[in-house]
Amino acid sequence: MIVRFVRAYAYVLSGVFLAIPTFLLSLLGIVFSALSLLTVGLPFLVGVLWLARGSIAYFRWPARGLLGWDWSGPGPVRLLGLLRNGAAWKALLYCFLTFPVKFTGAYIGGASFLIGLYFLTAPAWWLLSPRGIGIELTPIWSHTWWYFVQGLVAVGVIPWFVRCLVWLDRLLAYALLAPSRDRQRIAQLEAGRAALQSDAAALLRRVERNLHDGTQARLVALGVTLSRLSHRLPDEPLVANARDAVTEALAELRDIVRGMHPPALDDGLEVALSTLVARSAVPVRLHVTLPSRPPDATASAVYFTVAELLTNIARHSGASRAWVSLVCDDDFLRLVVRDDGRGGAGVSTGTGLPGLARRAEALDGSLTVDSPGGGPTVVTVTFSGKA
User: Fold this and answer.
1) Distance between CA atoms of residues 346 and 325, nearest Å
2) In degrees rounded to 5, what are phi and psi of residue 370?
3) Is the dihedral of CA 220, 223, 229, 232 positive or negative?
4) How confident is the model at residue 90 (pLDDT cuts 50, 70, 90)?
5) pTM (2 decimals)?
6) Which residues pair with 382 in a beta bridge?
7) Other Cβ atoms within 10 Å of 188 Cβ, number
8) How many CA atoms does the CB half-sphere of 353 hold within 13 Å?
């Protein structure tokens, strides 16, 4: 009982100090919401909502440390989507509501509990000083027992009062800060999909390594042996045919290995794209700006998308130049491939773009094509940059 009250009161007392800046933030949100009707306050309102989303993790720290509550933090969101983000608005509402709840528990609960303790010990204070210490007591010692009864009631009731306020704050927190069951399920599915993608990428790399170090090495050794035999038996057509078959098998195996995991990706996506651009039949200018190395699944998807688009440009566009740009934008990789060809490309034209669109959608991304007749053609692809 006492331990629970101490933790509950520590929660509301610390919460008061933590909630002061967020309460002021909620007041600013009200002001900027009114100003947004005149479009003046829109940029400030976006900033307020961004800070309010951060309070989801901000309030989780004392709740988890003192009371064992927990909820997931806010997921990534684009700044332009904050005005339509329900989690941000609910977090802002919590910032406004939690301060009066915690202030009531800290001030009324704390003051009442201390006064109750004083009244509970009123008979002892009368013996030390008949006039009491700090407040006037009764001149008759037996009358101090009435203060004792009041103190006993207060000490027994106030902890429940504080715990009721903490329970109310918990309802607000789980209603406004914690994600809904649907969001939790989506988060679990996204985490499971990310794990499967990571496992699949690791499996492909392991198979590629085994083929490279095992099967390919054996085929190379067999080819060398057959070459020696062909020199010793120049008139034997079976040896020459076997050597040619091994050479073709090696070429096919290399193509399969490159299709599973391009070795250039081991040195980073920027190096891999530079190598890819250098081999392009059309001159390409490359621009890559990445703050960190993306996940293997995303890097592989970007690589094969660029390879497919450059192949399309060389085969179908009639372009003389192309441009490839890859930048990071709010936890998403944004790939833009442009050429000065004849245009007329589309997702349904059968040039491989439908498959690229499905690949992007599998990574929470999208693919758009802007290709009017006469050109130019601009293909924009986004990929999730989250691991």
Assistant:
1) 20
2) -120, 100
3) negative
4) confident
5) 0.51
6) 334, 366
7) 11
8) 23
CA-CA distance, 386 to 313, in Å (whole number)? 29
| Nearest of 379, 274, 374, 273 to residue 318 by alpha carbon | 374
DSSP 8-state symbol, 314? I
pLDDT tens string 259-278 = 555 666 767 788 888 888 88
Could you please report the per-residue DSSP string of 252-280? HHHHHHHHH--GGGGG-HHHHHHHHHHT-
- Here the tokens at position 45 are 């309102």
The DSSP bridge pattern shows strands 284-289 and 332-339 to be unpaired
Peptide bond into 76 cis (omega under 30): no
Contacts of 198 (CB under 8 A, 6+ apart): 295, 296, 297, 387
Strand 322-329 and strand 332-339: the pairing is antiparallel
Q: Are 263 and 248 a contacting pair, CB within 8 Å?
A: no
Q: Which residues pair with 324 in a beta bridge?
A: 286, 337
Rounded Cα distance between 74 and 92, Å, is 13
Structure tokens at 276: 């890819």
> How far, in whole angstroms, is CA 111 from its chain's centroid?
43
| Whole-number Cα distances in Å, 124 to 40, 145, 223, 385 | 64, 10, 103, 68
